[in-house]
Write a structure and sequence with these properties.
Layout lengths: L9 H6 E3 L2 E2 L2 E2 L35 H14 L5 E5 L11 E5 L13 H5 L3 E6 L8 H18 L5 E6 L1 H12 L5 E6 L10 H7 L5 H11 L3 H13 L4 H17 L11 H18 L7 E7 L7 H11 L3 E6 L14 H7 L20 H10 L1 H7 L2 E5 L5 E3 L10 E5 L8 H12 L3 E5 L9 E3 L5 H7 L3 E2 L2 H9 L3 E4 L3 H5 L16 H8 L3 E8 L5 E3 L3 H6 L3 H12 L13 E3 L6 E4 L3 E2 L10 H25 L8 H11 L11
Parallel strand pairs: 5-6, 5-7, 7-8, 8-9, 9-10, 10-15, 11-21, 13-17, 13-18, 14-16, 14-17
Antiparallel strand pairs: 1-4, 2-3, 4-6, 11-12, 18-21, 18-22, 19-20
Amino acid sequence: MASVSLQTHSQATALCRPQGWRHGSLERIRYQQSSKHPSRLQASYKGLEALYDDGYQKAKDLDYYYRAIGELVEHDSGPPCWFCPVDAGSPIEDDPLMLYLPGVDGMGVGLFMHHKALGRMFELRCMHIPFHDRTTFEELVVMVEDVVRKEHATSPKRPIYLLGNSFGGCLALAVAARNPRIDLILVLVNPATSFERSDIQRLLSVVSQFSDQACMAITALLNYNIDNEVSMAVTSMIDGKHPLQALSRLTNNMSCFLKHLNILDKIPEDTLGWKMKLIKRAASYANYRLQSVQAEVLLLVSCADRLLPSKSEAKRLQRFLPKCKVYFFANHGHSLLLEYGVHVSSIIKCTDLYRHSRRYHRVFDFIPPSTTELKEVDKASWDLRLRTCPAMYSTMEDGTVVRGLAGVPDKGPVLLVGNHMLLGIELISLAAEFLRRKQVVVRGIAHPQLFPNKRRSWSEGHDFFDFLNLWGGVPLKYKHIYELLAAGEFLLLYPGGHREALHCRGEEHRLFWPSQTEFVRMAAQFNATIVPFGVVGEDDLLEILWTFEDIRNVPFGKEMMRAYSNHLKLREVDHEVFFPGLFLKVPGRFYYRFGKPIPTRERQDVLTDKPAANDLYLHVKSEVEGIVSYLLEKRVEDRYRSIIPRVLYQAARGPNCEVPAFDP
């Protein structure tokens, strides 16, 4: 097998970096870790900054893709090979390997929209199968298997990712079935295991009177979901892009294949027949060995796939594969990786499948949010942001209160300790503002029940559980707090826990902290800075319809709440949990204030002196209570507390302007 050599052809050269061979084995290409802004890197990020560029915002269009394919078809020769994309950039330290296995077309450039995003997280290699090549499916399996086994022998504790697209999904399943002892993670995009139940063969029999080129053109046109292209154009206009720019991209994507139909004239005449035999064999081979697959599997499934019954196939595969998760895309076609709005790297993060060793570790395998992920969270929470318009204040070392986060330390370890509002609705705004203003990821400590093992998810924006994973939330365990503080991270801790987040009517802005002082001792052990904070505003947004006592007094109400609390395995036994009935009020505003930082470097006495630890604990608690009282007092001075004057202010000055609040 030879490596790709396309130096004389500009389009293909921009996509591919040839990768050589030594003594019959694939040569490893290693990269130097970037040292740009080293002071702003947190210890566990392995060289990636928060808000790193994942390339999705500047992804090239389909016209670029077809021009590259045209040059590959015209100049490519030789057997199947591997290449490393040039635009993938430099990966992080100790990056796992990802092998991209293309669809039945064999074009390794089919991942071009994801090169940079995946290239920052993985050592990315793409398989390329020339159109004129007639390598059998079994030989392709051996080709992938050779790389997998050699990499496993070199780094037996490092996982290997196989990203299989359609036909490549069958290839990935076959390799996994033959190597159950190797730590493989499969990401399968509309796998072609349902080929025998698809309408492709029936379609090709109907159009068989046409030439092979015409049949391939019809099949290619069915790959895409035009409805999704229109939807993405509308979304881009809503996001502020000029209508003519959005319309230009829409028409270009819809017509680019027709502009490059001459590609089909360069493809050998028997290509279609051979490809159909190849995919039929691949589906049969993979289906026969499904029960041997022990690898973790992530299925990315298009519900609007016109070529394969991908949605029903996902449900079938999930019954056979013991470690399978499914991510459905409601409005996308078969060529999922070529459509906008699909962020494979983010999905891998959300599903807890990104790791550097045999076991996933929430602290050390965390990758910070990218620019695209911040925009996606902003898009999902735009309604909350519009309604609450958070105003943030902080306290300098001399006690001066200022607007913004200047008073919060820039370097960790930092422990943010504060009060919960109802249902924790303050979380997203707090984390997003720290990321936006300070480029700091706040690692939230949350109840283990907020980290469910979701087997199925949908693509209509990130939900709250995805947000926790993207922002590096960890379950409440002392070892996680120790590890985060030791790594110099920013931690977000709510001592009141679920009792504050699910409080009753009349308990707004009250603290329900336990008597334990563990977080003070842990902060002192790592010389962390404690920053007390308070937040108010839930009473300007939500009204509770019924109280805890209301539920207890209905028939069997007490028993039902007790059973539900036991099911959640919450720590309190004297207060059952219920989720209150709510209705929305005319929105007011959220106010945050971060108090004067409390260094623990000179407070090592709290490690051994219980009264000293208790005094520091009570001091932090009193600071939070004082901040809450301060905000409740000062918010009445805010002329823009109500949503109506805020909307008028932003209408006159732009939607992204900062709305004034009270003078501190």
